[in-house]
Amino acid sequence: MQCSQHRTAVSHDTVARGTLRRTSCTQCSSSRPRRRPVVQATSSSSSSSNQGVEELPGPRNAFVPGQESESRRQLFNRISPVYDELNDRLSLGQHRVWKRMAVKWAGAAPGQRALDVCCGSGDLALLLAAAVGQGGSVTGLDFAADMLQDASSREAAATADAPWQRSAKVTWVQGDALELPFDDASFDAATMGYGLRNVADIPKALAELRRVLVPGGKAAVLDFNNSSQPLVDSLQGLLLEQVVVPAAASYGLGDEYRYLRPSIKRFPNGREQEALARQVGFRSAVHYEIGFGMMGCLVATK
Ligand SMILES: C[S@@+](CC[C@H](N)C(=O)[O-])C[C@H]1O[C@@H](n2cnc3c(N)ncnc32)[C@H](O)[C@@H]1O
């Protein structure tokens, strides 16, 4: 296994069940402590290396075709030390409510096999683990090794704090949402939180979700809503630019969060997401607006 900075291809078998092996890399010989100092982004949209390509705020190459994936993987590795804290602060804890709704909509039930794609630090995977219980199984997949490390540590801490809880153990897998390393029809329910907007190929990610679900299985895809309501859109823009970016900047991560607004504006709206889900073969697809229309959840049934 290579370190997260130097690996170019991800493999799906690098994370042991419930624990994630620490990486050591011949190129940088670094070993990562649990809480890492935040490293200031070395690149930003002010770079002129992509001449002729539309420049948008955010990390370099985050929107350049063919380079988004690697750029965004690095971005999520960088923000992982403060990701949970910022989520709580910036949503006033509301993201926990929206994630609970997504798990309900995915229909995860005791004894089932559930998957959380783009699991990040594991919020949705851990909720799925409680929903399916010890008789079930949960897999959390992400391509950012640092996020997975946090997810694994959080699961261990939660188990130590409440050993009586009857949650499933989570298998943390490093891999690509665009090429899920699982057989067809391996899962009864799936979630994806704030991931679809970040993948390089949205229809492919939806098709992969569908492929790994059993017939009748549901995927709940939670993300920011690209609202067509001018008032909601303005309020969302204001909150992102006046609250979220300054808060992130106080951690040295302004550039990393500045990409949110353009990524939301480029994200298919609810109707478009429903159409995309049907195009890749989901039997039904409904998009729900939540959080005063600023968030959305696509619920697609195979
Ligand atoms: C905004 S975070 C969301 C994390 C978590 N689901 C949550 O709701 O808190 C997006 C996550 O998607 C992951 N991601 C983005 N593109 C991916 C891809 N192609 N394959 C796997 N993970 C990806 C990132 O590494 C990051 O952890």
Quickly list its features:
binds S-adenosylmethionine; disordered N terminus; 7 strands; alpha/beta; 16% strand; 302 residues; seven-stranded mixed sheet; Rossmann fold
Structure description:
- This protein has 302 residues and is α/β, with parallel strands linked by helices.
- Among the domains are: 85-225 and 267-301, Vaccinia Virus protein VP39 (Rossmann fold, 3-Layer(aba) Sandwich); 230-260, no CATH class.
- Helix content is 37%, strand content 16%.
- The protein has helices spanning 68-79, 83-91, 94-106, 123-132, 145-161, 202-212, 230-249, 254-258, 260-265, 270-279, and strands spanning 113-117, 137-142, 170-174, 187-193, 213-224, 284-290, 295-301.
- The chain has a seven-stranded mixed sheet with strand order 3-2-1-4-5-7-6, with helices on both faces.
- Helix 3 (94-106) crosses helix 4 (123-132).
- The radius of gyration is 18 Å and the shape is globular.
- S-adenosylmethionine (SAM) is lined by residues 69, 72-73, 76, 118-120, 123-124, 142-144, 147, 176-178, 193-195, 198-199.
- Its EC number is 2.1.1.329.
- It catalyses: demethylphylloquinol + S-adenosyl-L-methionine = phylloquinol + S-adenosyl-L-homocysteine + H(+).
- Its main location: plastid.
- Belongs to the class I-like SAM-binding methyltransferase superfamily. MenG/UbiE family.
Topology:
Elements (H helix, E strand, L loop, with lengths): L67 H12 L3 H9 L2 H13 L6 E5 L5 H10 L4 E6 L2 H17 L8 E5 L12 E7 L8 H11 E12 L5 H20 L4 H5 L1 H6 L4 H10 L4 E7 L4 E7 L1
Parallel strand pairs: 1-2, 1-4, 2-3, 4-5
Antiparallel strand pairs: 5-7, 6-7
Helix pairs in contact: 3-4
This protein binds S-adenosylmethionine.
The site of S-adenosylmethionine has 21 residues, from helix 1 and helix 4.
